[in-house]
Amino acid sequence: MTLDLAGTTAAQAPARDGAVGLPPYDRTGLRPGIVHLGVGGFHRAHQALAVDELLRRGEARDWAICGVGLLPGDAAMRDALVPQDGRYTLVTKHPDGALEARVVGSLVEYLYAPDDPEAVLERLADPATRIVSLTITEGGYNFDQVTGEFDATAPAVVADARPGAVPTTVFGYVVEALARRRARGVPPFTVMSCDNVQGNGDKARAVFSAFAALRDPGLGAWVRDTVAFPSSMVDRITPVTTDEDRALVREWFGVVDRWPVVAEPFFQWVLEDDFPLGRPPLQDAGVQLVDDVEPYELMKLRLLNVGHQALAYLGWLSGYRYAHEAVADPLLARFVRDYMDEATPTLRPVPGVDLEEYKTTLLERFGNPAVRDTLARLCAETSDRIPKWLVPVVRERLRTGGDVTRAAAIVASWARYAEGTDEQGAPIEVVDRLADTLGERARAQRDGDPLAFLRDPALFGDLVDEPRFTGPYLEALGTLHRAGAQATLKQLVEG
Ligand SMILES: NC(=O)c1ccc[n+]([C@@H]2O[C@H](COP(=O)([O-])OP(=O)(O)OC[C@H]3O[C@@H](n4cnc5c(N)ncnc54)[C@H](O)[C@@H]3O)[C@@H](O)[C@H]2O)c1
Ligand SMILES: O=P(O)(O)OC[C@@H](O)[C@@H](O)[C@H](O)[C@H](O)CO
């Protein structure tokens, strides 16, 4: 029998041997102590799984999740999840092709904010809400990538800061809800960022308090000094769900699911333990609670996430479309590993982690053929990634007199990709909020203005004036233009 998560069969279907049944716990009476903003693939493969794990153990019944979508694009998640009562299928794909699936039941409510902003504000202001977690992407934090300052001039921010505004941004929602709690004598919820941003807790504190100060300086100081913003390192490669995944869930596991999620087996979550209103017993779900997350964050962002960037553009230009195909190319695998070795001196010692082993494992994870992570996903929104993750590596290496050849080559490969045509002259669809200006600069650079792409202080600061960076950058770019990605890789790897 097929289990339709939106249909009556979902309520009636008995769990068959080998089939995927409904979550094995009673969902009536679960209370959402967590409100999550930005319910995409990653949240559903990671945090919601951890809470589901606790619920399966009979724990955390006050810590179920209310998911919230803020952007117009989230209407599709509403349309998938609301009829399914928040349930969805998570498929874990092992490298040998083995599959595991479970129906996750920890999301007990989903609110699409544009439908009813007041309902979202009151859910956030409700004393039962004790944690507000975020996966709103790197760009969602709206800060200048060089100065780190909150961009108070963004039009949506300006609109949300007006007295009485109906919010549209994450800042408007979170800060209005905090203001209501403050006025009502309800202690503030903890804001838990789960985005790939270095020092994500401190960054969240800075941007939310800066926004609050636009409304009222006293509120800004109260948010800064009173609200807890624990930092976290989160890790699980979660590709974009495809129609093939929907079909797989139906045919293989017998579940009709409008929006399942798929992920690799690896799961890591390292979290600073700063939750004044309490938290679920996440340690029982494998979460590492630590005093200082920074070494873990540096390791993950600078090796895994920049490692993805090292693979993505050179991989695309070499003709690959999936991460596992690209990393099976020995030149690319060697280049990614060489970049990781170049970045390693910028890390801090990580308790209990052998960095050499960690790097080897990363390449194995990138190579998982079942996950089918696309290079297109890894090539998107680079202007929110490379400046935040890689430029600090370059600066640190320059400060200590280190070589930046591979880091510069990654930036050159991004510039070559941003030109918008591949080595066969086929168009590249560059997905980036700055795609137009990046494309213009990249093409101007190709056509005779050698450093045009780097001449954007908001992305690169003063790196354009640093010959120890521009030297290897121009060399890699020249080879990319003259001889292509494979020849560039050969030169980088073999010298
Ligand atoms: N996918 C992964 O492998 C992975 C792994 C670790 C961490 N992450 C973190 O999670 C983030 C989201 O990844 P995903 O795979 O879930 O992406 P996704 O595209 O599936 O979901 C992104 C969600 O964020 C929301 N969002 C985007 N910009 C926003 C903004 N400015 N304000 C408010 N909401 C906004 C979207 O509406 C959507 O709900 C990543 O950017 C990263 O920081 C992802
Ligand atoms: O999702 P982003 O934009 O932070 O970065 C793209 C990938 O590098 C990222 O999603 C990784 O797959 C993830 O961080 C693994 O834990």
From TrEMBL:
Residues 33-283 form the Mannitol dehydrogenase N-terminal domain. It is an enzyme of class 1 (oxidoreductase). Its EC number is 1.1.1.17. GO terms for molecular function: mannitol-1-phosphate 5-dehydrogenase activity. Keywords: NAD, Oxidoreductase. InterPro entries: 6-PGluconate_DH-like_C_sf, 6PGD_dom2, Mannitol_DH, Mannitol_DH/Oxidoreductase, Mannitol_DH_C, Mannitol_DH_CS, Mannitol_DH_N, NAD(P)-bd_dom_sf. The keyword Oxidoreductase applies. GO terms for biological process: mannitol metabolic process. Residues 292-472 form the Mannitol dehydrogenase C-terminal domain. It catalyses: D-mannitol 1-phosphate + NAD(+) = beta-D-fructose 6-phosphate + NADH + H(+). Pfam families: Mannitol_dh, Mannitol_dh_C. Transmembrane segments: none annotated. Belongs to the mannitol dehydrogenase family. This is Mannitol-1-phosphate 5-dehydrogenase. The lineage of its organism: Bacteria, Bacillati, Actinomycetota, Actinomycetes, Micrococcales.
